[in-house]
Specification:
- By secondary structure, the protein is of the alpha+beta class.
- It has two domains: about 1-35; about 40-140, Immunoglobulins (Immunoglobulin-like, Sandwich).
- It contains two helices and eleven strands; from the N terminus they run αβββββββββββα.
- It has helices at about 1-30, 140-160, and strands at about 40-45, 45-50, 55-60, 65-70, 75-80, 80-85, 90-95, 100-110, 120-130, 130-135, 135-140.
- A hairpin with a 4-residue loop joins strand 4 and strand 5 (about 75-80).
Length: about 160
């Protein structure tokens, strides 16, 4: 009787496998193609300053899949200049006007057929730091220009004390 139960269980497993195997093969064929959504494996460097170059590696990153790249703080989406792009790498420059803070990487997918393009939020973040001139000093353009103008005015007054 135990042999009969064992044969019965084997035939049920065999029947189940016959049904599942084609479904698994179909799924693999559909999802293992080059039509994958962009996926990121690394983003280097993770801490950047405005003007720095960032390298993103992964799969499906080519121009046929990714149309544009953005950095977002969830209030403002900032388009970045892509310097190099292929199926496995995207290199871009952080915009010079980027504000300090944590920014998420977004990619605008190419529209397929008549679909609307899709903005893909990726689980990749950059920390943008302020530009510093010396240790502990933050460069602020307005103050530097004002100080330079004040210095010029002082020099002019020293040259011509009658004014």
């Amino acid at each position: 009787m135990n042999a009969h139960i064992a044969l019965s269980v084997r035939s049920e497993v065999s029947n189940t496998m016959r049904l599942i195997t084609p479904a698994l093969l179909l799924a693999l064929c559909c999802f293992a193609s080059d039509e994958l959504a962009p996926q990121i494996s690394t983003v280097l460097p993770r801490v950047v300053k405005p003007g720095d170059t960032v390298t993103v590696t992964g799969v499906s990153l080519g121009e046929d899949r990714v149309e544009e790249v953005y950095l977002s703080d969830h209030k403002f989406d900032m388009k970045v200049k892509v310097l190099e792009q292929d199926a496995k790498v995207i290199k871009f420059r952080v915009p010079p006007f980027a504000k300090p803070g944590r920014m998420q990487l977004l990619m605008l997918m190419k529209a397929e057929k008549e679909e609307d393009p899709k903005l893909l939020e990726l689980p990749a973040y950059l920390l943008i730091e302020e530009i510093t001139t010396e240790i502990g000093q933050v460069q602020t353009p307005d103050k530097n220009k004002k100080n330079t103008q004040e210095q010029k005015d002082q020099k002019d007054q020293q040259k011509d004390p009658q004014q």
